[in-house]
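ok new one. same drill as before - structure tokens go in, u give me an amino acid for every spot. 162 of them this time. try not to just spam alanines like last time pls lmao
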């Protein structure tokens, strides 16, 4: 992966994490800034890694679909393909429109379909299915982990004193 792609993935990850964490901070105005930074940076790195895994996961799904080994060497991010992902991550802020955010992610996924189809030998619709399955699987895994972390880290219900 080129340094430009790594920087763009990190930027997209931090932006996506900020879109998830900052609304929580807005609801809890007394939250310390150091805690916000401590949450934002690791969460941004995790989001960046998940974004980086999307083409690899799509390639793996394509390999499972193909009956013979594919002629290509794999699918990787390029700066031209990842730029819309950064825009989608910037628009991750819930107040700016989750529907627009979703539409941009679909656009980014559609941008991955062409290179995947060319590299794997699949037709466009099969490649689109592989990208969609990979994206949905990663999104489901991340959302499950998020909910698990919130459940584990949430303080227990206060029992009333009788």
């Amino acid at each position: 992966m080129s340094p430009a792609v790594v920087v763009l993935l990190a930027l997209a990850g931090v932006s996506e994490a900020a879109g998830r964490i900052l609304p929580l901070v807005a609801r809890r105005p007394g939250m310390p800034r150091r805690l916000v930074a401590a949450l934002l940076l690791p969460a941004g790195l995790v989001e960046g890694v998940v974004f980086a895994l999307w083409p690899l996961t799509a390639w793996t799904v394509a390999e499972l679909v193909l009956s013979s080994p594919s002629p290509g060497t794999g699918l990787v991010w390029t700066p031209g393909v990842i730029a819309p992902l950064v825009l989608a991550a910037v628009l991750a802020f819930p107040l700016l429109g989750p529907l627009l955010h979703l539409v941009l992610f679909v656009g980014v996924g559609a941008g991955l379909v062409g290179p995947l189809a060319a590299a794997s030998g699949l037709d466009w619709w099969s490649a689109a299915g592989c990208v969609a399955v990979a994206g949905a699987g990663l999104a489901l895994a991340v959302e499950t982990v998020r909910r698990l972390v919130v459940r584990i880290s949430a303080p227990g219900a206060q029992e009333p004193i009788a």
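The longest helix spans residues 33-65. and btw The mean pLDDT is 77.
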